[in-house]
């Protein structure tokens, strides 16, 4: 029987991960990890060794994933910072968190709609040009929609 190997991340040691290992696992640079901390985007202070080196734990990596996904969808740093502040403050502000995330979701959905419309235009233009090339009418490759 053929075994399927799944990419299961190595467990995070109890002592935590170095910044370079956390960067590797999270897919962001060590510089970005330090920036997230300086910019107030973390929900708990990053653990430190006795020598002052950062140590990242599971919760830290999970939160970094949240931050990177919010950034990838266009949320401004100030929005992520506000969300981090709300999460760090604990229970009692769920309505504020919900408002922030719903507002961002609406913006992302609008961007997706715009992108879909733009993609449709691009696909139309590709079809026009392919049709002209297939019929030998390549002299006029620009045509309004």
- Tell me the name of the CATH class of the largest domain: Mainly Alpha
- Describe the strand arrangement of the main beta sheet, using strand numbers: 1-2
The CATH architecture name of the largest domain reads: Orthogonal Bundle
Strand content: under 5%
The total domain count is: 2
- Terminal residue distance: 55 Å
Number of helices: 5
In helices, the fraction of residues equals 55-70%
Q: Please give the number of β-strands.
A: 2
Structural class: mainly alpha
Radius of gyration: 23 Å
Query: Rough shape?
Result: elongated
Mean pLDDT: 90
Q: Enumerate the spans where pLDDT stays under 50 for 5 or more consecutive residues.
A: none
The CATH topology of the largest domain corresponds to Multidrug-efflux Transporter Regulator, Chain: A, Domain 2
Element-by-element helix/strand order: HHEEHHH
Q: Largest beta sheet, briefly?
A: 2 strands, antiparallel
Task: Summarize it.
With 145 residues, the protein is mainly alpha-helical. It has 5 helices and 2 strands.
